[in-house]
Amino acid sequence: MDKFMKRAVELAFENVQNGGQPFGAVLVKDGEVVSEGVNELHIKHDISGHAELLAIRRAQEQFQTNDLSGFTMYASGAPCAMCYSAMMFAGIEKAYYCATLDDAKAVGLGKSAVIYDELQKTADARKFDMCHMEIEENMPNPMELWKERNV
């Protein structure tokens, strides 16, 4: 195990000691730690306060960019679907992790596995009900405005 993963696991262990969940993340660029995070759900009551997301937010703020191409994430546990998506949106191309989704499920932290399973289903077979509503004809369309300004 390299020093970056060791640090992610240390962060996760410390987080459990402080009342949090066993998740830590380290974001690296060119062999240097850029930012770190631990799950802060227990502190801020923010469901998006995952270790990977906090590391991403801190790096984006530090570098004033949304593009984290060339960065690598080290996470103590397999990223949930939300963190996986955020890494992809940010341009992070590689992530390493220790604990698997099955490991998390075995200790009562199985929502990630459930969400991954749900995403494999067709939209009409999912438990979460998503309902499409058309924008009314007389309302301004934000997608059209975006297209006018950016295409």
CATH class: Alpha Beta
Distance between the termini: 46 Å
CATH-level-2 architecture = 3-Layer(aba) Sandwich
Enumerate how many helices there are, as a single number.
7
CATH third-level topology: Cytidine Deaminase, domain 2
**Considering the protein shown, what is the CATH homologous superfamily?**
Cytidine Deaminase, domain 2
Radius of gyration, CA atoms, in whole angstroms: 18 Å
Uncertain residue segments: none
Described by the principal axes of the CA atoms, the overall outline is globular
Work out the number of β strands: 4
Helix content: 40-55%
Helix and strand string, N-terminal first?
HEEHHEHEHHH
Q: Could you tell me the mean pLDDT?
A: 95
**What strand line-up does the widest sheet have?**
2-1-3-4
Can you summarize the main beta sheet?
Answer: 4 strands, mixed
- Measured by DSSP, the beta-strand proportion falls in 15-25%
Provide the domain count. 1
Pairing-aware structural class of the strands and helices? alpha+beta
